Amino acid sequence: MPTTHLLYLHGFRSSPSSMKAQKVAARVSAQHPGLVWWCPQLPASPAEAMALVRSGTAAWPRDTTAIVGSSLGGFYARWLALQTGCARTVLLNPAVFPARDLLKHVGEHSSWHNPAERFVFHPGYVDELRAQEADIQRLAPLHPATPDTQFAIVAQGDEVLDWREMLAFCRGGSTTLLPGSDHAISDFDRHIDAVFHFLDLAG
Q1: CATH 3.40.50.1820 is right for the domain spanning 5-199
Q2: What pLDDT does residue 115 have?
Q3: CA 159, CA 147: separation in Å to the nearest integer?
Q4: 177-181 — which CB contacts under 8 Å span 24+ positions?
Q5: Integer distance in angstroms from the first to the last C-alpha of the chain?
Q6: Tell me, what DSSP letter sits at residue 39?
Q7: Could you give the C-alpha distances from 200 to 5, 57, 60, 66, 100, in angstroms and in order?
Q8: Which residue, among 25, 23, 51, has the nearest Cα to 38 in the 3D structure?
Q9: Can you give the C-alpha Rg of the chain in angstroms?
C-alpha cells in the first residue's frame, strides 16, 4: 500500500533545516499535499528523542508509515522501524555505532544550521545510545530487513562514517553504494528520485 505518513529524522547537530530534509519536504509539499509529514527537531538525548517520536507517531498506521533517517537519524530510523514494524525505511549514510563515535563529542555544541543555538551532549547520552544499539542487535535477527522494507544510500566517500560498517548495518535491504559523494550526500538531487520511488507516497 502507498505510504500515507512520512517521518524524517535528522542527524547529530542537524535540524529540519538540513539540505536533505528541506528537499524532501519541498517535494512532499509540491507533489503529495495529502501526505502526513513530520520532521521534528530532535532533543540531544537519544532516549528523549525517541520518546518524542514514538509519542508523536503513536496513532500513525504502521502498514502505511515510512521513515527516512540521515546519519544519527538513520540509526534512529532503524531502531524505530524495529520497534514499530513500519512499512518502509530509508537510511541515508546511517550511523552504525553512535555510542562509540559520539563519545568524543561529549560537551557543548552549536547547531549546524543555527550557530547561535547551543546544546550539551551529556555523558549519559552515550549510555542511552548503547541501550539502543543493544535493542537493534537483539531485534534485527528477529525482523530482518528486506528490499521491500528498507532502502539505503551509502557513500564510499563519507568522511565521517565507515562505508563498510554502513553496508553491514543495512544488510538485507536494497542498498545503493555511491563510489564517491560525502557524508552529507551533497549530490542528493541525483538520488532523490530513487528515494521517492521506494517510498511510494500517497496524496
Answers
A1: yes
A2: 79
A3: 26
A4: 178/153, 178/154, 180/155, 180/156, 181/155, 181/156, 181/157
A5: 12
A6: -
A7: 11, 19, 17, 9, 35
A8: 25
A9: 16
Judge whether residue 75 has pLDDT over 90: yes
The predicted model gives 119-130 an average pLDDT of 96
pLDDT confidence of residue 116: 81
Lowest average pLDDT, out of 19-23, 90-94, 113-117, goes to 113-117
Specify the pTM.
0.96
Is there a contact between 154 and 168 (Cβ–Cβ < 8 Å)?
no
CA separation for the pair 10, 16 (Å, rounded): 7
Residue 45 is given by DSSP the state S
Give 142-185 pLDDT, tens digit per residue.
Answer: 999 999 999 999 999 999 999 999 999 999 999 999 999 999 99
Q: How many residues does the chain have?
A: 203
Angle at 23 between CA 200 and CA 113, to 5 degrees: 140
Cell numbers representing residue 86 in the block: 513500519
Residue 27 has a CB neighbour count (10 Å cut-off) of 15
The set of cell numbers assigned to 128 is 542511552
- Point out which residues pair with 121 in neighbouring strands: 107
Q: Which residue has the cell 515510512?
A: 66
